[in-house]
Amino acid sequence: MKVLRLFYVVSFLCILISCNQKKESVKFQVTNSLELDRTFETIELSKSFLNVENLEGLGIKDSKTGKILTSQLVDNDGDGTNDVLLFQPDISANSTKTFEVVDAVSDSAEAICYSRFVPERTDDYTWENNRVAFRVFGPDAQYRFENKLDKATLSSGVDAWLKKVEYPIINKWYKNDLSGKASYHKDHGEGLDNFHVGRSRGVGGLAFKKDSTYYISKNFTKYKTITTGPIRTSFWIEYDVWGPEGNLIKESRVISLDYGNNLSKFEVTLEGVDNISAGLTLHEKDGAVTSHKDETWLNYWQPHADAELGTAIVSTPVYYNGNEKYDTEEKDLSNAFMHLKAVNNKVVYYTGFTWSKSKQFENQYAWEQYLSAFAKKAANPLSVTLVKN
Is 90 left (phi over 0), alpha (psi -120 to 50) or beta? Predict the structure, then answer.
């Protein structure tokens, strides 16, 4: 009996000591090796990196200030379990900051980074953040075009919605336009869609060059929303096989747009070719195509109605394969192209725009400085390392 009592006492003390032991948090450091301050760059923390079985209920704390940062959980593979924890640190030039993974209340921040399929407007897929908005066109719009029906669109180009407010506008603009309350082709104070795509590449659409001819796909055929939230929206789309005889191309994309960025990230999976080109429509050919020697960006700055518009593509040295201005008399087919080489059947690039009425950049020079810095950062991602306790 005494032995049994002693066992219970020892067990109770062990439980008490265990309950009062402070759980050690996972610490990690983020290092910026560039002579540029870094903001609005998203860090992805996986379960394997953090050595945890579950990311639910976890957040990020700045070890120095104690501030809990906005974060977002994402299930990239759609299996019902979150794969990565996202956050955006502010890191000064040539510096390192320490962060901790902590228990945190579920983040209820608004989904500023938002996307969705839009069946009420045939079948657009549209996405936005606090700075820009885009859309691409689906199979019903293509069917309508091929059968001479209304609300038809045949285009694999990327459309730009020129917003000048930081709050979400997608749902509002579609609702007002379809109800007849207010057309999104007119500016009612928040911006408008007056960007013509047609057969052009719009803002970063793809084409394949064989000999001297560029071939393009039709509309996307399948889609899947991956995530929306305060930091990122992303989705997957697929296209029917396309391209010239002898070079048939199978293509799918994961497109993501992060908070604070003017450029969407395109992660393209390709079969059938080892190179591809991303293009920017030249519209009326009254603008300037610009780039910089040894830098992996391409820009088209143009007059646009009563304002100015800059559209751009950025990649990294591993994929970049030069630029070309392609000028033709065929309607909508003049584009500025960035040529890209596939690595393990994959191409990654970034594409987006700025509109002078958004007042995000003072002028063309400021926009191109942004592109230059963006290219350097994309080629030199922030380094993340665990801190050993």
Answer: beta
Q: Is the pLDDT of residue 389 over 90?
A: no
**Mean pLDDT over residues 20-28, rounded?**
66
Burial of 278 (0-12, 13-18, 19+ CB in 10 A): buried
CA geometry: angle 305, 308, 311, nearest 5 deg: 115
State how far the Cα of 318 lies from the Cα of 294, in Å rounded to an integer.
13
Sign of CA dihedral 44, 47, 52, 57: positive
How many other C-beta atoms lie within 10 A of the C-beta of residue 298? Answer: 30
Mean pLDDT of the chain: 93
* Helix or strand (DSSP H, E) at 162: strand 159-163
pLDDT in tens, 212-223: 999 999 999 999
Of 352, 202, 350, 338, nearest in space to 275 by CA: 338
**Percent of the chain scored above 70 by pLDDT?**
93
Q: Are 268 and 252 in contact (CB under 8 A)?
A: yes
> By C-alpha distance, which of 203, 252, 263 is closest to 226?
252
Mean pLDDT of 13-41: 74
Cα–Cα distances (Å) from 124 to 20, 115, 274, in that order, read 55, 11, 29
Residue 117's pLDDT band (cuts 50, 70, 90): very high
Q: Which helix (H) or strand (E) holds 116?
A: strand 114-118
Question: Which token pair is 84?
Answer: 């990565």
Measured between alpha carbons, how far is 325 from 334 in angstroms, rounded to an integer? 8
